[in-house]
Amino acid sequence: MSKKIVIVGGVAAGPKAACRLKRLQPSWDITVVDQDSLISYGGCGIPYYVSGDVAEETALRSTSFHAVRDEAFFENAKGVTVLTRTKALSIDRKAKKLKVENLQTGAQSELNYDKLLLATGSKPFVLPIPGADLDGVFTIADLHKAIEIKRRIAGGKVGKVVVIGGGAIGIEMAEAFTDLWGIETALIEFMPQLLPRIVDAEFAAMLKKHLIDKNVAVYLSEGASEILGNSEGKAIAVKTPQRTLEADLVIMAAGVRPRNELAKEAGLAIASGFGGIVVNSRMQTSDPDIYAAGDCIATRHLVTGKQAFAPLGSLANREGRVAADNMAGYATTFDGVVGSFIMKAFERCIAATGISYETAVAEGFDADYSLTAPADRAHFFPNTAAVILQMVFDKRTRRVLGLQAFGAMNDSISARIDAAAVLISKGAVIEDFSMAEMAYAPPFSSAIDSLNAAAFVADNICAGLLRKVGVARFLAWMEDFNREPDWLALDIRHAKDAAILVEKFGNEKWLSVPYPEVRARLAEIPADKTLIILCDAGTRSYEVQVFLDHAGKRNSLVLSGGFNVLRRIGAGWLGK
User: Where is the Rhodanese domain positioned along the sequence (predicted)?
Assistant: First the structure.
């Protein structure tokens, strides 16, 4: 028997659900309603359209075989009716009707449904500050705004840009303006680090340094207090408590919120806090005939077990498919997310999955982490580069809670993050990561994969075989030696590499004993100091710690990640 399915929202989850339903139930009548004129586009590609990496906006709306996904495409190729420029006004749950308005004519009508899917997406958070409505202030809300931004830039009307918000979209937009267009760009973030609550401080610091190296001015712990305009109503500057930054264009990238108004007014259950529509694992709302999917919902975090907001196009498509399956009578579940994230920033890549160490501590886990800096492929292969990995784990249960990565813009990071995401979603412990079989060939990885190596270090920490010191604590000591007056840096790199720091700080704070010489020069290594052992990645430092312990000198700590991390953070005392 044919059924009527109405879907509100035509960007990601909605179209995916509609097409899946037509494949499962070809005779069903499926209608998609969207208030915009542009539908089914890759919103995550907007920064790359602005930058020029994607030449035409139609590419974001096209299939892999270059057909533009518009109303005619869905009608003719998919058998799905799409009503654009049509706003959903209200839901009559008892009568099972959706009231809509044609935004071109103002005419209102009702659509009957047997099942209704809400895929209303998210909306950008607009800071409640003076000047937010000035001409030249944009949120990255839809493709229309992206087209206008690019039109202004291409027309030579933009020389300076201020981006408000140091999350993924803000950083990607800052790169877009700077990389191709050469526009003077400033990025301001209210929190003390970039990507707050996504990565830990050391990873945010490495990203910050790279942005600065690429001529993006970065201001942390600063919130925009006002956007200044001229007599013509155009934005000309952004004011913070610390400074005023001139701007021809202002991008407000302060995060997004679920579009939940339709659901809330219909009396559906809404998550407290961030306001996502509550759904079960089959994407049903509190009304069994109404489903929801995409950026508008509250999902479950598989590490913390708590409700989570995960506005990603990849998840929206999967959620839309699950909703379609269940509406069509095929029992499928979407169990939740682990918060996988990856982004490009000029020549660098940063990624994370699971939860950060900071979050793990706040959530009450007995948390610790391993910080490693191995090569991204076999060390003898040309053009190898260090990849920084941090594995977060619970010391009591040995469950791996998260993984973060920073390195060159290649596939080495995505491969490890993707593998970790699958393992973490299944509740994997350190041993699962240690023994995970990863494809090996010298152009792609080392014989001991970097993911395995991170788990080996985590295992050593849990077993009490490795004692480490965190980067933040070490850097604080370097700023003020009086913080830890009994510390001594034991630099086991080549003597030429250590010489500049020995000269700068003296042997009483910086002792050079190259790795191959440690055994022969054991007598020179003091027993009355806390030794901070440093090498490039941390591996040799651990070996030296084991030897010193065996020799009766158990007064050492290994600097996690070594100089590979310090250089990427850009400690001033390192010099050039």
Answer: 513-575
Sign of the Cα torsion 93, 97, 102, 107 reads: negative
Mean pLDDT for all residues in the chain: 94
Count of Cβ atoms closer than 10 Å to residue 265 Cβ: 11
Contacts of 159 (CB under 8 A, 6+ apart): 183, 184, 248
Q: Are 391 and 455 in contact (CB under 8 A)?
A: yes
Contact 189, 222 (CB under 8 A): yes
**Does CATH place domain 4-121+257-327 in 3.50.50.60?**
yes
574 pLDDT band, cuts 50/70/90, is confident
d(CA 327, CA 117): 9
Q: How far is CA 353 from the centre of its chain?
A: 8
Whether the model pTM is above 0.70: yes
Q: Give me the architecture of the 137-254 domain, per CATH.
A: 3-Layer(bba) Sandwich (3.50)
- Residue 468 falls in which region: left (phi positive, over 0), alpha (psi -120 to 50) or beta: beta
Rounded Cα distance between 372 and 387, Å, is: 8
Residues of 107-138 as b/e, b for ≥16 C-beta within 10 angstroms? eeeebebebbbbbbbbbbeebeeebbebebbb
Q: Do domains 137-254 and 468-574 have the same CATH topology?
A: no
Q: Where are the domains of the chain?
A: 4-121+257-327, 137-254, 341-462, 468-574
168 contact partners, CB below 8 Å, separation of at least 6: 195, 198, 341, 343
Instruction: Check residue 61 and give its pLDDT.
Output: 86
Q: Can you tell me the distance from the alpha carbon of 99 to that of 265, in angstroms, rounded to the nearest whole number? A: 13
Q: What is the rounded distance in angstroms from the CA atom of residue 168 to the CA atom of residue 189?
A: 12
End-to-end CA distance of the chain: 73
Is 296 catalytic? The answer is no
What are the tokens at 258? 């679920």
What is the pLDDT at residue 43? 80
Query: Of residues 181 and 190, which shows the higher confidence score?
Result: 190
What pLDDT was estimated at residue 59?
84
Q: What architecture (CATH level 2) is domain 468-574?
A: 3-Layer(aba) Sandwich (3.40)
Please state which CATH class domain 341-462 belongs to: alpha beta
Set 44, 349, 462, 535: catalytic member: 44
pLDDT in tens, 84-130: 999 999 999 999 999 999 999 999 999 999 999 999 999 999 999 99
Beta bridge partners of 120: none
Give the three-class secondary structure for 1: coil
427 has a pLDDT exceeding 70: yes
> How many Å apart are CA 136 and CA 125, to the nearest integer?
17
* pLDDT at residue 576 greater than cutoff 60: no
What residue has token string 């044919």?
A: 2
